[in-house]
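Protein modeling request. Please complete all fields; requests missing the sequence field cannot be processed.
Requester role: graduate student
Desired output: 3D structure, token encoding
Chains: 1
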Amino acid sequence: MHLSQLKSGGVICRLGAEARLLPGLKSVYELAGLAVAAGARLADLLPEGGEPVDLAALAAADRLDVPLRHPEPARMHLCGTGLTHLGSAATRDSMHAKPEAQLTDSMKMFRMGLEGGKPEAGSPGVQPEWFYKGPGSEAVAPGDPLISPGFALDGGEEPEIAGFYLIGPDGTPNRVGFALANEFSDHATEKINYLYLAHSKLRPASFGPELLVGDLPRHIEGRSRILRDGAAIFDQPFLSGEDNMSHSIANLEHHHFKYAPFRRPGDLHVHMFGTATLSFAAGIAPRSGDVFEISSPAFGLPLRNPLQTAPDAGFVATRVL
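Delivered output (321 residues):
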């Protein structure tokens, strides 16, 4: 089952090839809240009926939003983990290589994940790298531009899977579903120094168009492309799912939600699980007007966003009160 959300309000459910607009629901957040309150599964609360819709046509018209938003953007948290996928360390290691065959911090952390990232069920394993991207205002809808700030050195894609979580009244994280994500980052800034990673991640990210409800497939095959004037300048497959990861999803979830501030009732969390495929590693420098396209059959419609560069705002001065 897949869920989508209209920018104008309304929830679409797709089962197989058939999609319908669910009557009486304004948002997936509303539906998730009902499920949490009832202690029920989302599928058990779907209203019957509803008019059929052409989901692909709605996406082409840029009418689909991020599949799940919080009505208060400041209570929606975009976060993620890196070095979680088999092969991901090679790309990162090339950015921060040290002489004389010394292991970089990236490779050390990746090896820690290989050795302890998939513990027995119910037990915590080694903690992953973690980063913060911003509040819900930085969640970009499919079709809308990913805006790179004027001071950025680069604006590049990261094809990932993201989990969406609503915190219940008792502080329990409730996983609503998974969606395609473009964890848009500034890799040129990160390459200068590993300690600039936090700066490089403070960028918008896009999600959707569809939310996969239920368990994440263990093996996911996808494709990441960059289109320039309609032609692909980058086209590579990517793999995800636990069979292709050095950490289990449960371990990544535990190490995010073990922090009490991330279990505040009513908050919404979007957690990106990492990738091993980057156009930056292939020497590609995206520019304004290029279109990022991330797709995977398991998630339905592809996620497409054009790149846009904002003018440089110059020096930001504070005002003394």
